[in-house]
Known about the structure:
42% of the residues lie in helices and 24% in strands. It has ten helices and eight strands.
Amino acid sequence: MTAFSADWLELREPHDRRARNPAVLDAVVASQAGNNAIRIVDLACGTGSTLRALAPRFSARQNWRLTDNDLSLLARASATARPAGVTVTAVPLDLNRDLEAALDGPIDLVTTSALLDLVSEPWLDRLAVETLARSIPIYAALSYDGRIEVGPFSQFDAAIIAAVNAHQRGDKGFGPALGPMAASAAIARFESLGCTVAHGTADWVAGPSDREFQLEIFAGWASAARDMPTISLADTVEWLTFRRDAVAAGRSSLRIGHVDLFARPTGSR
Ligand SMILES: C[S@@+](CC[C@H](N)C(=O)[O-])C[C@H]1O[C@@H](n2cnc3c(N)ncnc32)[C@H](O)[C@@H]1O
């Protein structure tokens, strides 16, 4: 599985759904109360996880404009089952180049998930300025924030986690990524522009029964660590073997910190 493969997005979706911060979700839903037709743009929709999580919470009619630069994911997203009264338009877009085009036309709400940690500070600034200029509230869910708790203990955990967090700062197509700094940077930027920001943790919590999910994450971390000079290949392999054994023995647990936020321009609902 790759970082954006449909298989990985499918595997993580139930964890994302459980992790989404309920108070932030309530603030998003409350912001649209009294609006009987909501126009939503979802940035980097993947296979439509945010549509599936959010659409059933609104009683109003909804039109979702789904944007992504991966045509295969976009096709899956537009084929997703959806509640009555929900229409979907799929728009292929490179959001690094064409963010402003994604925000064209009348929009009541911008959504995104698992995107902000991939983007650079200038792109985040662009997003904040462009949404504020249009007075559009934005719900940005599931930004990784650098907190990791993993058990049982391995002597290599600290080096692996340091390598993962360094890898997160690499360029993911939007310039040097904010990685673990994304949520705090976004909250600070939206607040500095005068938005009201609701935010809260949205951690992935995986236990012994979440074997496939944990194995996939550990494989991804080992692969990230391989690209970093901070830990040797031999130590990485030893760490991965230890982690796989712990998963197989039903002794592995994992918490990965994420943050959800909802930024509303002052004066909007
Ligand atoms: C981690 S996935 C999250 C997908 C979805 N929001 C979710 O939560 O399941 C990141 C998404 O960003 C999309 N993406 C990455 N770079 C992009 C770009 N330059 N323009 C548009 N979409 C992009 C990927 O195709 C992928 O769908």
